[in-house]
Amino acid sequence: MKWKRKAVPGPRTKDRKIIHIDMDAFFASVEQRDNPELRGKPIAVGGSKLRGVVAAASYEARVFGVHSAMPSVTAKRLCPQLIFVKSDFEKYRAVSDQIRDIFYSYTDLVEPLSLDEAYLDVTETKRGPASATLIARAIREEIYATTQLTASAGVSFNKFLAKVASDINKPNGMKVIMPEEAPAFLAKLPVEDFHGIGKVTAARMHRMGYRTGGDLRRLTEVEMAQRFGKVGRHYYRIVRALDDRPVNPNRNRKSVGAERTYSDDLKTLSAMQEKLDWLVEKVFDYLAERDNYGRTVTLKMKSPEFVIHTRSRSFSGEIRKLQDLKEVARQLLVENIEDVPVVRLLGISVSNLEREGGEGLQLLLPFEEE
């Protein structure tokens, strides 16, 4: 049954009831569901033994340190028994549509973040109980009954806390954070478990003596900005559970990208890789400076005839290493060079950013690298 979807504004107070649903190892779980021989085994979706990058890893593979955006060669070295499975994004998209139909049967205020996760505002619902906790439980049960896949959920009064909560009891778990519980919960939460604080920043915070939300909460907003730059003001708010962002059913994808037009067409793979690596470094530096990484990488190629080709690849987790991002970009280039053997423009962008923050930026670069 298809449910009517409306773009209507949601409540903006602490009375809101927000759910964050995150599918468990989505791509890998779909493959294990459809192939019983893969169940209980370490698998990697995408890539191969010798080339490519991992799009997603099963929990059995993650135990060995395998993760999304990792070069396949590295993944195989970490887990010799790793099984590579060809990705099928049309299948994943079809399953995602089934899951979203369940979401929309409860509320029109659904903000998809990717194929496997979304925010829901269930302050007022189309059906079901008044309790957000019971709704989250019902949604997880319906997802399993419909797809035979498990999902984890976080329930709270704002998006930030709901997102953090959904990671607490993964896989196949749920966590509820009530308004009166939020201050104590955040005070004890390790800084590396805050959504939006990456590993590099968390390590830096540790060196500065800040290990928990309670440690950070001792800093004023000005002190936060002095220590961490512009993003420090964001940290000041989240450690105090201040997040008034509504669930936005019309959310635009934000991205950070860079592109360059060359005075001389690029005619060899090595020349293209050299230029592409440089672009990747510019984009990654911008993301790393803001500690805000993304899940989707898009390559842009323009032929001498001004025909534009774009190719994208999405992953189950954010790409947090420069070398991983380079591997993804190079793989997209290799896979599509036959379609565009000569280019006059190359571009790379990263979207599905971890922290929304209003970013949607094309880095301004000169016409040609000097």
From TrEMBL:
Its EC number is 2.7.7.7. Its main location: cytoplasm. SUPFAM superfamilies: DNA/RNA polymerases, Lesion bypass DNA polymerase (Y-family), little finger domain. It is found in: Cytoplasm. Belongs to the DNA polymerase type-Y family. PANTHER family: DNA POLYMERASE KAPPA (PTHR11076:SF33), DNA REPAIR POLYMERASE UMUC / TRANSFERASE FAMILY MEMBER (PTHR11076). This is DNA polymerase IV. It comes from Neolewinella marina. The gene is dinB.
